[in-house]
Amino acid sequence: MSVADKSRKKSGGLGETVSVIVQALLLALVIRTFLFQPFSIPSGSMRPTLLEGDYLFVTKWAYGYSRHSLPFSPDLFEGRIWDTAPERGDVAVFKYPPNPALDYIKRVIGLPGDRIQMRDGQLFINGEAVSRQKTGQIDNPDITEVNRPVDVYRETLPNGVSYDTLDVTPNGISDDTREFAVPEGHYFMMGDNRDNSADSRVFGFVPEENLVGRANIIFFSISGGASPLEIWKWPSHIRPTRLFNMIR
What we know:
EC 3.4.21.89, alpha+beta, 248 residues, 31% strand, transmembrane helix
């Protein structure tokens, strides 16, 4: 084989490698944009449902697509394509209204036209108290973030969706609010950790355009601020009971 042939062979091999890499990146971009997006939990606002160190898959097609479905949210179009309204009780990822560069995750509590209010720690929707039953206490700092037992309440929305909420601070500052009237095209979001959640009680309503997708499944979970790449910490920090849990 001549030097020229060897050079062409090497060049062809390099070109094929570059082509495979480009195709893989394009495929990953398509999957992330239209199908699934990985998301990590950065705060304790959704405890006990979601914990810091949980890693989720978010379904992008669940609510249709807006410009926020694309990387960097380019201003290519307004509104949503193939729009499907979220259901009350969904755990949704959305762009933070005051700063759309940030992703937030909360539970959908109020739909367009609803009236939402907290009274003495009780959630009211359209003037009716939402079922709230104390189920016990959690005494685990990995779940509650505090070194004492915390009351747990099972809340059941009018459509039957149930989930646990934490009452870390009885009679807390967020336990009593004004009544919020949710405008058309917007949603009212709340965290399950009611006393430690900056949500629609603080920043207001979330435009439907800001919805990114619905959180569906926890595919990995690790405690203590450890990174999933720190494999040597898995034996002591991984949360095996949370792996592949469906999010409700």
